[in-house]
Amino acid sequence: MSRIFITEERIEGEPEGPLAGRTVAVKDNISTEGVRTTCGSAMLEGYVPPYDATVVERLKEAGATIVGKTNMDEFGMGSTTETSAFGPAPNPNAEGHVPGGSSGGSAAAVAAGEADLALGTDTGGSVRNPAAFCGVVGIKPTYGLVSRYGLVAYANSLEQIGPLAPTVSEAAELLDVVAGPDERDATTREEGEESDYAAAADGDVDGLSIGIPTELLEGADEGVVETFWDAIADLESQGASYHEVSLPSIEHAVAAYYVIAMSEASSNLARFDGVRYGPDHDLEGDWNETFAAVREQGFGDEVKRRILLGTYALSAGYHEKYYAKAQDARAWIERDFEDAFSEADVLASPTMPTPPFETGESLDDPLQMYLADANTVPINLANLPAISVPAGETDGLPVGLQFVGPAFGERRIVRAASALED
Ligand code: GLN
Fold this sequence. Notes:
Bound molecules: glutamine
Structural class: alpha/beta
Helix content: 25-40%
Strand content: 15-25%
């Protein structure tokens, strides 16, 4: 069975506000007071949070109606929404194909019209990838723009909560509601004058300079690359200019990302020992045996693989070899992006190197699945904002184009993306 929602309880917001009358679907790793929050994992099957995430509080204050919690890869680990303990989510715009992930349920809810808007989370592409695969818009905000208070952490240093919507201006409207400092998340920052994102969706790209990182076209499918260049030609006809740029460090991005993400995950997921959360159990033996048995039952294969690899990367003797090296690569990638923004207003690439995978295709080959994140993970490593906007189709399957901006340059990427919609 495939499903978009895990929990379908309605939460009504205040009657007034900018989102009054609008329905929003919320990814199931974002805490909702009194409503089950599972992270797509058997480990949290019966867990009901006693408080709201900051973004949920802001949705309620803005008058939105939350229509349900959406399906996702277990704890956000995946690119297809197939690792969920609740079964896979469908792709409403590409039958027989995955909706992308890990926020696949959120993108599918918007694509199917089950919700006007949705929230997802993006640690290494999980908002942009499903947006691209389902033919909707998704924004990964600058690190620190949106509060992570109440988000069940996968990899804290990489992730942000971000909006999904049918159009750029609606995604930007939702970003306006959830963005902004929060005293309960010390990594949030004042975005200053760089706010009012919805107003930036004016389609005006006259004079915009677009940098195209050659490395992000190299591994992409021919049909995806053709669709990408058609979109760039369209922007050029509207007054934008483009030139190629190079980000030499980016070849290390996937390796660095997976070392950092798995290391942080192995530490974050240590708290799931079956004592405070998790399925009822009646196990015997000492603490270690009990914890091991609960974790063996509660976690799926992909989560276990990442806990094992992350623990290994952090262990004594290997820490310098893997984790410290990945941090060096991260710093180098950040510098390459800074250089690129000295010669371009925004950068553009295909969001995903391929159209949506067929259902089941990537489950047996995790490495292939990790490599498909090549264009999205560098952005998280560099803490930058990016948007995925539908750019057309190849063989009848949706293709997304990604614009990347400098830190807190959300208005620029919203503006560029809105020009493609016209
Ligand atoms: N596919 C990437 C991963 O599995 C990204 C996931 C995400 O952004 N949550 O880690």
